[in-house]
## 1
Amino acid sequence: MSRYTMIRTIWMALVLSLAGLASAFAQDAAAPTPPASGDFKSLDSDVQTLKKEVIDLNRDLFVLEEELLFPANTQVAVFVSVDVGTYFALDTVTLKIDNKEVTNYLYTQREAEALLKGGVQRLYIGNLKAGDHELVAFFTGKGPHVRDYRRGATLTFNKGVGAKYLELKVSDKAVKEQPEFLVKEWE
Amino acid sequence: MSGSTRPLYRLLLTFLLASAAVAHAQANEEPAPDFALRTMDNQNLRLSEFRGEVVMLNFWASWCGECRQSIPALTDLYAKYHRAGLVLLSINVDDDMNRATDLVRGLKMSFPVLFDNRKEVSKLYKVDAMPLTLLIDREGVVRYSHNGYRLGDEEQFLERLRTLLKE
């Protein structure tokens, strides 16, 4: 290969790789032509419509994904709620279904406050076949007199054909000045 | 190949490698997986609660020399840029938390130190070498990742960090 041909090959390779890089950045680099001032209003409403469509599409995709991943006939969902919370500050919930740990959730201060304000959290969603199952939930946190506190709650439930919804409920037992942990089946 | 064309080939090779690196960095921009961990002060912190801030994650262990070496540089960086919106979450992966606690106190680390004793977060972030430093932008996307530490690496962190803080 002559020296000229070699140099020409190198330059061609350089130009080609530059073109490749340019195409990678093309999306960022391509600035839209500024619209005339009168068009700003319609452009703004177009953007808003587009944003709404994206949000709608996201919601539909989310629902579709859930329906595919957790079909209603095998779906089990576990929710957490906290009522009052004078005698217990929630820190962690460990959930076991049929003696297998399915989640271990740490609550931040914000999340614990949201639960105290009446929020209900979906702690777990999964699939279970029809039949009897055992759910065990361990709650850790600060109990009365700000002492470390750990309690468990158990429920044996029957999973039928439809989806099953269970609620882990933390409430106060004022008479005993102790927190109470319940597992409730939603009808 | 003649001696005069060899530098040109080197230049070409460097250029091609650099373009590949740029393409690779772009491909790595993925949403940072969310997690919650307990801090040394017994607080629970969740990554998604820092959305809107620039977050630096640093995975380390007390037995890792490079990790210990990087901590003073990170402490300086945090002291300087904390007010500008930098959140630094230092994630310790030691099996024995006491060793980590001693080191944290010894090195006077001023940023939150989180314990990943179940190693779940390390798996989530595919930590295969330490220290691993990641920069997450205000949208929650991993924009920079760096394995290991050598003196002077903080210059790279600083450069990337300043870009993210300006966005």
## 2
Amino acid sequence: MSTPGETAGETVESAREMLPDNSFLIQYPHVSRVVRSLFLTAFVAFGIGAFMGVLQALHRTGIARIVESADYYTFLTLHGVLLAIVFTIFFLAGVFTWANTRSLDRPPVSKRFTWFWVVTMSAGTAMAGIAMLAGLLPSIDISADVLFTFYAPLQAHPIFYIGLAVFVIGTWLAGIDWFRQFLAWRREHPDERIPLQSFMVLTTMIMWFIATLGVAVEVVVFLIPWSLGIMPAPNPLLTRTLFWFFGHPIVYFWLMPAYLLWYTVLPKIAGGRLFSDPLARVVFVLFLLLSTPVGIHHQYLDPGIAEGFKFIAMTNTMFLLLPSLLTAFTVVASIEHGARQRGGTGYFGWLKALPWRDPAFTGMALAGLMFAAGGFSGMVNAGMNINYLVHNTLWVPGHFHLTVGTAVALSFMAGAYWLVPRITGRKLYSRPIGLFQVVLWFVGMVFMSAAMHRGGLAGIPRRTAEPQYPQVAFETVAGSVGSLRLQLAFGGVLLFVSALLFLMNVGLTAMNNKPARGLDSALPPALSGPEQSPTVLDNLKLWALIAVVLVILAYSLPLYSIVQGAGLYPAGQEASPAVIAPLLEVIA
Amino acid sequence: MHVHNYEKLWLGASLLLIVGFISTIVYGAAGAGITMVNDEGGQVNPKELGNTSGFDDPGVTKVGPNEYEVHIVALQFAFQPGTVELPANSTVTFYVTSRDVVHGFEVAGTNANTMVIPGEVSQITVEFDEPGEYGIVCHEYCGAGHHSMAAELIVREPSNFTMQDDTQTPTSGNETTNATATPTGGESA
């Protein structure tokens, strides 16, 4: 980002006038502010969540037990919720606000409405955060030690569930904001193709509207009334199923902003152009259609669900591999095109011509590479009967630290190195630190994730403060359990150092007085443009309708049979930790 | 719609890979006979397990020449019984349920693995071919003492095995074998 001719005494204010007229910050100062505030929340959550992560890595391996094992689960809840919900979704909201505005070339319709959803999401986060943190203080009778999945009849304080509901409503309002922005654009451009980035934002949000219905029903209809003592405990299998109705598509909600960056930003950084705009649209449509009717694959080992329903979920899941394989092709082809524009030649020689010194490029490239590994370890989980061997073992967090923990998180960090200067006008504090940091993340994750996968094959369970039992001797395929523990903890420490370097680099960028240069916000057009794809791809109503039909087909029978089995409120279910008797039982 | 030739090739190869993956699962189900935990176990009232046949006295029951049933109750933070003894070369059906919250049941290092949900009974049938000692762990977070929840499973030579509670009342025959437990390491004693 440095260009010759930069003078030492230049300030951001004086340099702002020198920013090109088409730079995002000059065109949309207010939207830039919104994105900055969303990123701030995302990065604060990232810092706290990463700290919880290193505590766990050291604790469960027995290397350093700083907290009580009973409190481990409070830290684990914070780790999961802060990283998988707050960091990812606030960052997504920032990227989508930027991308929708940039590609439609118009701001959101109402500033007040935009701030309203930002505040709603933040308020929900604060409520759930208070409930989780209070679990560390025995003097306060509030806790939410229920982990990211909050399976009933484990119970959290009502403020946790209410906070989640408020947060989800905030994301819905954000989606409505982006749709209103699109519709305003549509009125002025009735016959144009939807700009690619906006298309990605809109399809992702339709998927999210459908997916969050599951968790909304779970939380609002069952968990909130139950935790308030108004209704009895719900059917645990039903609430689990509603959770996973939402719990799988959220994976793609994390991933889609990373894909958006890979498809639209990465080719530009690599010096080239997107290979195929039509294929990019096909990929996002496939994710919209297939993300939700697969959630039961998280419940392969649940009793009370017939094998046939699991088989259907398995088949859908395998086909969900298709859009990711198509992405691998398009992204690599786009990068190769960039490398050849930069003078690269040969079958593989072009790889040398890529901008490896740019942390934004290298971070995203390494993230993509690791996603390939994560995709294949995910295929083992998805393989219904092979999954018996790894279900709920350390293999599973090993898998998703490759996907959400690297493909997503590392792409976000790399994306931030590119995007933060564009929304602040400030030069990236240090490219070398950035480069070191993204490589360190990759190396740390290789150690930690490999150890987790191998530990999982030995049967070591996940989500456990002390996976050392007098009754159990875990047998690894190669190497000792002790060496796996060291490897896991070492990787975890590297990841934490990398996270700190990232936060420091971004924090110093936000305070950097050197102006950013060359912030042209235009993205190069695709080699195969949208005009080469049928217009039906842009028919969002049609795809939304098909997605809803697929969800009904995949879920109506399983949900019906679960409710037929034990009912909505089966007898004998009791909250844990024990609370006051439900009001209805007291009356009865 | 214009699709580049290399893209078509890649698309074809991708679809082939996906169909290949699905075939391995179908083979596992139809060829190797691995069936999924399903809804056959039925429902129970978690507060009435003391009055529920099988769970009122959890443990091993012989139901056929080489066939056994094991009823297990998972609770915060233990399995009942804490030790299960079985003979090698037997077919064993586990019935596992929970008295309180969601738990997990995993014979470490094998594919005998299921979720345990209060109100539902998980039914899995496995074969133990070789003698050995196995650990059983709870693999789903179930509260502050989750990490202490484990049990042991001892598979003895048939000649060394005697039933503790020899109530020879065959209930129903075992139709399916849905998992084969084999030791991963050399821990068979």
## 3
Amino acid sequence: MTINILENEQVAKTEILKFCENFEKVRNETAKFIVGQQDVVEKVLISIICGGHVLIEGVPGLGKTALVNTLAKAMNIEFKRVQFTPDLLPADILGTNILVEKNGEKIFQFQKGPVFTNILLADEINRATPKTQSALLQTMQEKCVTVADHTYQLPKPFFVLATQNPIEMDGTYSLPEAQLDRFFFKLNVSFPSHDELSSILDRTTGLSSPEIKNVIHGEDILAMGDLAKQIPIDDTVKHIIVNLVRMTHPDSEGAPEVVKKYVRYGASPRAAQSILGAARVNALISGRFHVSKDDVKAVAKDALHHRILLSFEGEAEKISTKEIVSHIFESI
Amino acid sequence: MKTTMNNEIKNVLRLSQNQINLSVLLRSVFVGVIISCSICLVANIYFIVQGYAAQTYLYFINLGLFVLLATIHFLIYFVNMPKTAVIVDKAYNLKEGLLSHIGFQNKGLEAGVFKLQEDKLIADLSDVRGKSLFVMPHKNLIWLSVMLLTSMCLVGFMPESERVASKKKQEEQMLKITAKNIEELNKALEELEKELTDEEKELLKKSKIIQAVKEIEENKNKEEAFSDLAKLEQELRKELRSDEFQANLATLKNLEEEALKFEETKELGEDLKKKDFKKAAEDIKKFELDEKLLKDLQEELKNKKELSKEEMKELKEKLANKVSSQAKNMKALNKSVKKSLSKENANGKEGVAGELGELSEELSEIEGDLDKLADISKMERLSKEELEELMKNCENCQNCSADCKSKLGKLGKSLKKMGVQKGYMDKLFNMKEKLNMAQMAVATESIMSGGKKPGEGVDRNLTGQKDSLKDNNQFTQIKGQKGEGAGLVSIEDAASGTGVSRVQGKATKVEFKAQAESFMNREDIPDDLKGGVKNYFNSIHNIDDTKKE
């Protein structure tokens, strides 16, 4: 049941406090095992609260799987991992009907695939064929699976964390624009610093590894998502989000020169939804009860950059979409 | 639904608005000072470079400009409540808290999370209480404005150059002269009105001069007065160049030349020469035939078949003394008129020329009869037929005399009219001269007297450029009238041929050559040098000659 925080001050205060506590608990618990990467952890958490999916880009061995594993443990939710390979079929992910004998009768029974979980780690998603990649489309957007005229609802919360390796591009299939747009955030996992790497060594090469406790439950995450949706936003800030997304389109009025020159197609309205949702959570974890420009700025880059398609000139000149987003933000 | 804003937030907003606007006002003052002083300084430096002292009126303009600019600046940057909220948000790092709060308030959202938002805002604002949003203008702005203000004040003490001072003095003098000339013009106009006879006044009324004069009197503006003076001058010139008057003058000039050749018409000729047309009209009357004499003669001869010797003697005397003298006068007049008319084609002409033509016809007619009457004086006796002929002649003469009298009278009237016109023209000419003087004086105020005034453009004389006399189609350039009589410049004819005599120059050249040769032939000069110098000069002359060829 959704708790309304717009009417009662005390309820609002309690719920928001609880939200912040839960967020902090998960963050702290994750930090026990994941060294550094606070920004990535925070963004993944925001994305989970908002019901979005995250595409993480980074070289192997940076702790992507460990991050998801830790988060799942801390949030006490089910976690499954699928290694995407070129021979992986949609049925391998979604599940399929198999013939089983029940009470002497042979019937088709739906065998659930690994997608029926709370957190699905789609490792190296770009290695699978487009057919398999698109099998995730319905599940990511509608959070349900349809097999043989039968639709199966996925458990709540459902969160896809896909990874892709930016170096090894041989035998990979770039994610189609439609699928990229379904990712709430695209995050880059950077290589750890000297101290961070040293801490990683300390924590992972010893006899004992840190124990991750269940600090919240799946229901709490859903409640946190509902609460975040009620955080108010002033029209001025809302206009900033609208303008920000509109400015990514080279044909829009007042688009910066850099967009006109280097962008082929801008972000979809889904980007604006992602920014607003993420900004609301960001406002709450920043201790505010309204969305500010800073909240928008904090999440806009990760929500927009994978949704902007560069033109030939942009590709040729190796323009970064993040730079374009920064430029647009400055021009507003 | 709009809700009431929390008093604490409201107070902070008001206080902040006042502080920000005070900062804006102070900045406006300095910005106004910088811009207005810069303009004033540049203008004054320009005048100083031209040689003038700094202009006091520019300081007043500067003051006005400063007030205007400062006001404009203040109005542009004046902050209202929403703008203040944005500034306060930014200044106190409220992360759009105040702006959002105002937005929620305007929508009537104040419960639940909105109340929490308000409480947080109040708490944030209480943290920054005591901090002022008043900002002093940048020190560079202050320094610049102080420097400009000081410079402008210093420039005000710089004196004008001697050249400009002397020209100003000249200008003042010229202004005095101008005022005097304009006064004289007014006086001339008054005199003109007083001096004119009724007939002249009639002529004056017909022209547009009165209207032009009235316009000048009404005008206070110098430029318009100048324009009106030019208009008046045009009107005067138009009147003075009246075609009819000029044609009549030309005809009378011819008559004057011819009349001076005969003893009988010399008086008339001289009066015409003096342009005393009124007296000439009187002179013309003298040429009228004595009708009484002819009538008496006719009475005497009436009913007489033959004249006695005594009667014949008396008649001869009368004819010889009176009739022949009148015939002589008329002949001389007729000759003068005919010759003068022969100089121009009088056919179909109007005015004096036409009248002279008609008079000439009448005179020719009467001349024959008078000759016949005069011839009788040479006869010893008169037969009956001759007597009848004489009577007939007398009758004819009497008849012609009336016509001739009327023609002479008409000519006399024309001459009188010409006299009136001449007087009128003379007065107009006199007025035109005064008008020209006034016009010149008004013109010299801006062109000749000490250059242009500050702010009225560049004085080209000071920049070394010559002023070209341009016709601006507004003011008529004054042209000289071709006068009569000998000119001031006389050129003496050479001994032979025409042109300027060069005798003096040649003599000087010969004298100089002799001197040069005497120097060259001095004993103390070596022979080779004598020859060298001579050859040198000869060679120069040869070169010159070749060039000429």
## 4
Amino acid sequence: MTIRFDFTGRTALVTGAASGLGLAMARALAGAGANVMLFDLDKDGGRAAAEGLNADHPGHARALAGSVTDTVAIHAACEAAVAFGGSLDVVMNNAGIAAKAPSLDLDEATWRQTIDVNLSGAFFVAQAAGRVMAAQGGGSIVNTTSMYGVVAAPERAAYSAAKAGVVALTKVLAIEWADRNIRVNAIAPGYMRTALTETLGREGRIDLDALTARVPAGRLGTPEEVASAALFLASETSAYVTGQTLVADGGWSSYSYL
Amino acid sequence: MFDFTNRTLVLTGATGGIGRAVAELFHAAGANLVLADLDADALAQFSATLTTTPTTSEGGSVQTLVADAASPEDADRIVAAAARLGGIDFLVPCAGIYMAEPFAGMTDDQWRRTLSINLDGVFYLTRRSVEHLKAGSAIVNLSSMAAHRGAKTNAHYGASKGAIGAMTRALANELAPKTRANVVAPGIIDTPMTRELIATRGDDTLKHTPLGRTGTASEIATVIAFLCSPAASFVTGETLHVNGGLYMS
């Protein structure tokens, strides 16, 4: 039993592509035939990720280093994607940072940085990509939000507010750009088993056993399966879906604790 | 795009607009089909078309049952047929009715008939299916935008479809991790069921639909297939809205 998406001849930009979910998205897109421009703050990580993808899919990946808080760099990333593949058809608007702190103690710099990267960054990437897509006649943008943009948890004031902002941003852009043939949707992952969560678990900053027990599916997600749900949103399979947030959380947000 | 070879789909309302598109898509993907519908002639004709349609894979079997979606006994017969094939991979109860009626004039029979087909029937079928659902199986229930947004003539329909969402979230919790259960909530889809609605209210509705058109049954079927596929392996208890943006406008 398989599902296969075909992005042959399409060009995708993936932000936050050096690791975790972004890397899984980039790998899935390259595997589906897309040319993928990897954008990440981590220059070496991004380059290594692109080399890894090219080993399996020769010529399908390039990397560019930069921050989603830098509109000049974002513009350069969109231009580089077009120069690479001739168009910009898919954007996985994925770069983001985690932030967890008691709200009574949350410092101003952390709040501002979290909103700046997770919400403002998402907007400026969508805006730059939207300009290219509007000019070329269409495209598909998938914003990475979080189940914490849909449901809440304590000590995530900045993170949840930013991610809920991305849910709202997704709806606004979807309506605004529908007549430009640009679809805008969001993927909202729950807890995933990544290098980051493994490290946080080892350091005692999150309790992986307790989190796993909380998920109705009885396990954390994998970046690969969340990426596959994101590919569905990017693909023609979802041609009539726009403005939506697809939650991939193993049932976390549907569970009422009863 | 999808490969469901050796998987078994149980589908009610198989000759309806969306049901037909689901059957065609899963048949093309090689699944074994257990198709139920109240209309014996339509079912026989549709089944004959399906079995003469070439598929991309070796092609699964097609079994038909004339059944009333509101009948617990008929639900038993449908599940028994699937059990004989070795169990159920995908359960998609598509049978549903919509009879436009303002609330004050709604008869007992209209209310009960709507609830009995759209909700009770899904309960009967799912209850009997539970022990035959295979590991990694998926349930996709059909809700509606009417479950989330009100309208002037669909209190019975909206109530039945709202209940489907709540029931499915309960099922997602209860049946995890063996079976995933999700909901598709279509907006205005061009099918026989919505023909009158589109004729009377279509223009006004389309004005508020960002994508500017009604959806097609096959655009619902592909979303259902996605929710059944491994691409959605971590998605359970969710509702996917497929409405061209109408829901948020």
